[in-house]
Amino acid sequence: MNATAFGDKPQEIVTSENLLYDAAERVGRIREGRQALHLHLSRLLPPNREEAKIRIAFRMFETMVDMFRGQMFLLTNNDIMLICKDARLADLDAIVYKLRALFSKDPLTYAEVDGEDRFVTFYDLESEYDSFFAVCAQLLNEAKKRVVQNRNAAPVQPLDARNLTKVLERIGVTDIAGVVRRQPCVRFSEKQTAEVAFQEFYMSIMDLQKILAPDVNILANRWLFQHLSQVLDLRVLSVLQDAGFRKTPTAFSVNLNMATIETQMFRQFEAAIRGKAGLVVEFQLVDIFNNLDGFFRARDYLRARGHKTVLDGMSPITLQFMDAERYDCDYVKINWSQDMADDVVTAELHHALGPLGFQRVILARCDTETSITWGLNQGIHYFQGRFLDSMVAAVTMAQCDKASACTLVQCNQRHGVISGRLRVDCGNNDMLDTFPPLKALR
Fold first, then answer.
1. 438: number of CA atoms within 13 Å, CB side?
2. What pLDDT sits at residue 320?
3. At a CB cut-off of 8 Å and minimum separation 6, what does 442 contact?
4. What is the CA radius of gyration of the chain?
5. DSSP state of 32
6. Higher pLDDT, 220 or 412
7. What CA–CA distance (Å, rounded) separates 146 from 215?
8. Taking the mean position of all CA atoms in its chain, how far away is CA 121?
């Protein structure tokens, strides 16, 4: 029989959100002893939403399904929803703790908004069923919209050797200054004052994707992206050299590949800032592991020329498995997470970093006052994060004669860029590059 005998209505695509919604309806009839857990993995930064990591997170919950007669749903937006019965909160917390460690580099795992944990939501379905069911309905509606959008959208291709060439060509004809971001690293002194020690310059991967390759997932192949990042290193150095800052930073901090240190562009940049600003080069641990000899060669070269190095992206977990002192960098950057406030984790950090000394630690991703207070109590002097960015913006506005034309959010955003409309619209570009001193937290 021809399908048109039943009309031309297309068959609805069944998603995991449909299945979750049906399960939520059934649970509503027997709620006693039932709980739900919603992992908001869709809120992770794009580089952290790799399929492999999402699958690992999903598998970590499989024991909970068997133990507590649960149902688990991997949603089309990468969220995970677990419905279970008579589960102990301690057991659920233990799994969530491991997942925070898996995604520890993402601010979602440690940043809160108005006291709300944005990484996970727990529901006691005996008392919170209506809220849970409303969320399931919302997730289903959003999934239906994505299905329609995906039908009409052009497919996104993974990065491969063929389209890498096209992306590299686009880099050559694109002004990437608009995707370069900056963030101050603030040094707190013993005299209750704080000032910017250096400014870190980096690229916004999301914005880069939009302007260079909206049809290509540039993070899909790590090794091809490594080659791409080496080309981007050169463009960033060129952009910084020609940025035309009203006030040159005290020191530039850049995250570079080891191979970039040996290029002519790096030597040109180094010559351009010599005598005007310091230079801090940050290296990722994974890159160091891939080329240990190259790292030591680059570190020694930089040190001989008076520059400083940073071992970047560390966490309490990585410090358990490697000796930071062995790499002999000037600084070790640790990403703050709420777990670090735990006495046991704090003791482990002191054991791992004792030989190095906390005075050489940069505490990054400080999004709350709690992180700053904890760091100061450990003897840390260097801090980065959105809490400090907001402090810089607030102090700037207090001193700026054009402040009435801006909001705090706008001032914060304008400090974070080096070109583009946000900066042009600022009525006081001089203060954007000044970064006034702050008062230390007591």
1. 26
2. 77
3. 192
4. 25
5. T
6. 412
7. 17
8. 20
Beta sheet of 120-124, edge-to-edge order: 71-74, 80-85, 34-39, 120-124
H-helix segments, 198-263: 205-212, 222-241
d(CA 304, CA 149): 55
Per residue in 266-288, pLDDT (tens digit) is: 999 999 999 999 999 999 887 88
Structure tokens at 12: 């609805």
Beta-sheet pairing, 112-113 with 116-117: antiparallel
Q: Where residue 7 falls among pLDDT bands split at 50, 70, 90?
A: very low
Structural contact between residues 330 and 357, judged by C-beta atoms closer than 8 angstroms = no
Residues 101-157 have pLDDT tens digits of 888 777 788 766 556 788 999 999 999 999 999 999 999 999 888 877 766 655 677
Tokens for 1?
Answer: 């029989």
C-alpha 47: how far from its chain's center? Answer: 8
391: helix, coil or strand?
Answer: helix
d(CA 380, CA 389): 18
Amino acid at 111: A
**Which burial class, exposed, middle or buried, applies to 82 when counting CB atoms under 10 A from its CB (0-12, 13-18, 19+)?**
buried
> Residue 287 gets which letter from DSSP?
H
